Amino acid sequence: GLEVEDIEYIGVAPPPQPSPVQRGREQGLAWDRDKIFVGQIVEVKPHPNADRLTLAIVDYGRGEPIQVVTGAPNIRVGEHGQKVALALEGARLYDGHKPGRELMTLKKSKIRGIESGSMVCSEKELGISEEHEGIILLPHDAPVGTPLADYLGDVVFDLKINPNFARAQSVLGVAREVAVLTGAKVKENGKAGNGGSAETDFVKIEIADAALCARYSAGLIRNVEIKPSPFWMQRRLELAGMRPINNIVDITNYVMIERGQPLHAFDYDKLVERANGRPTIFVRPARAGEKMQTLDGLTREFVGANGHSSLLITDTDGPIAIAGVMGGAETEVSDATKNILLEAANFDFISVRRTTQEQKLPSEAATRFGRGIHPSQTIPAAMRAMELMRELAGGNVDSHVADAYPAPVTEPTIELTTRQVTRLLGVELSLEQIATILNRLDFQVDGRGENMLAVTPPNYRLDVDGADDVIEEIARIYGYDRIPSALIADALPPQFTNTALQHEEKARDILIDLGLQEVISYRLTSPARETLLTPANASPLLQLEKVLSGNKMFDPRPLRAYVEIENPISAERSVMRQSVLPGVLEIAAANLRYIERVALFEIGAVFLARLGNETLPELPEDREVNLPDELRRLAIVLIGARTEMGWQNAENAPMDFFDLKGVVEEFASALHLREVSYSASTHPSFHPGRAAVLRVGEREVGVFGELHPLVRENFNLPAQPVLAGEFDLETIFASVESSFAVKPVSRYPALVQDLALSVDENLPAARATELIRQTGGALLVKLELFDVYRGEPLPKGKKSLAYRLTLQAPDRGLSDSDATKIREKIVQRLQRELGAELRSA
Predict the structure, then answer these.
(1) pLDDT tens-digit profile of 327-351?
(2) Residue-wise DSSP of 211-238
(3) CA distance between the termini of the chain
């Protein structure tokens, strides 16, 4: 269940045949076992020819001591006894005086007249770190003459801990997994112990809400000596990616990595107020506007965003830590600290996650609390840390541990039958096999009848509360590879056509054929991002939802509320979107930093909260669910030149409203929509006079046009026409007919005639087009408006519309007289109903 993502070899050579996780990775330097040793400085003498160099006499247990020339600032003339890493002539090391990691081989040479072929090494030369100002000084008990690879060499496994394996986010947790797989026994460091009362002679604990803090334990260690932690502890912390600070802080971090339970050390003497000679620790939600300075030196303010109040640890005077995240600077352990109050607590994982997100303050403790820790782990971790503080800091450990545990957790007892295991795994296991596997996992197993077991998970497992969880553990240990695969014995269900999906895929194919590229944007957004579609001082653009709902534009209904996310990943992703268009505009803006032309579309869902008078589907009585309407939308954005760059540069003018209208017309035509019409729109998101509403029958199904300049600026788009639109695919697809008629191609030639009309300036061309089509009847197979003209010799208030008519009959050839009759009929109707006049010039 644990995936090894990387293996780092420090000072030791990898095996001859590396595993897949090692291949392709540059391995660390392997220290020569016969050339790099643990040495001890016998004497340090001055260099006769250089003030900044010294001569160190080093014993390495293999014959006579060796003299080396060194400029290390951390050894001085007259000193002796330090344990060092000694490399002999021929050893391969990293060059400590060059950037990066460049290998070199030690050779004998003269340094300011003194011959030297060996050297005492820095951490950089050994590949341990980038530190090269001084040589590495080993602990006083390092065995002289031991190959350094045996003493300091190590292998570090980098494990990927998935959320369902939070229990393995510690050395002990990994050891338990290894023990299950190998049959070995886990050896736990430290002593077990039981909690005491929430009130002791040295502290009183008060928990405001047991749901947020299940348990708070505290121990007192008096008369500690603050100093660096031992070399072995510092080394292990560094290998785990943590910076050593001092022995007290290092012990809390060490035990956290060892056992998975975060700890925190307070300077006991800085806690106030001392009623009855002891401080009181309060665990409570933060108050609005409350502030504190954390250990990173920043002042944090708590505002209770999204109805959540961060959980604080306070004394009578105010906050001293953010529960589960980070301690406060006011009670930080310093060199002057003498007495330690050690905290081992358990906090609600959701509360810790929200606080971490709200304060933008990740930490090792928050990572562990955020995945869930069992309350039973506080006392063993505290006992282990207090014992280390006694050993490594000389502290006197109080015999009592304060322990507030208002609502103790009871481990569930789960009944499990062999029939359940067989049904889910397809493998017949006996009660004995099941019990053996569960015992290896540290579960308590008791028999309850011939085919039933009563199973209790260990107290460090939060992820097992039902039979399915237990069976999952059985399958994992039994071996997924041992579970046979089987074909479904039942008949396959009948296949039904997914019309909605077919329509959606058809729409994608059409738009791609029209030269557009599909994009996918986030369905999570924020109200502020969608408000960018509204120019300043305009009516809210979220009325776009009303346009797409099938009702008339800007109807008086109240806007629908947003569907909010209870635990958003960020403030920018706090609600479900009500419009697809903002996401596509953001993608367009990002791409226009690198390219000059975009033609994009997205088909996706919007989420509209149900109105109060709408009914919900029937749900079980114990469920309270307010499901939103999830409706499909199409958004289109066109920006840039009309055609892509080519050697001919045939058309490099920017796209305008009619390019987008052409895409919409072709889209509707390819779907064989009937009764499609367009009318001018005054939607506030679009440029006045350059926007239209798409109708199918009497239903408004979309709005499109050139984006309003202020909206364009809101999205940081370039100062050129931005063509955009959003369409209601639910209504459009509902209008798509399952079949459509196909007319045969006529074998007879067509007649083409042009018709120029003088009409009033305010007359929409669509009206004239509609009358021409109606009057031309079945013989008018094609109609094109190819010219609009204003100016002399036309009088003021008039414009000219020039049409090309293509006439064709399916069963005969048309004569010129046939065409003339149809043309005259059209002209007469236009004159009668529109006041149009035929132009001769």
Answers:
(1) 999 999 999 999 999 999 999 999 9
(2) TTEEEEEEEEEES----PPPHHHHHHHH
(3) 85
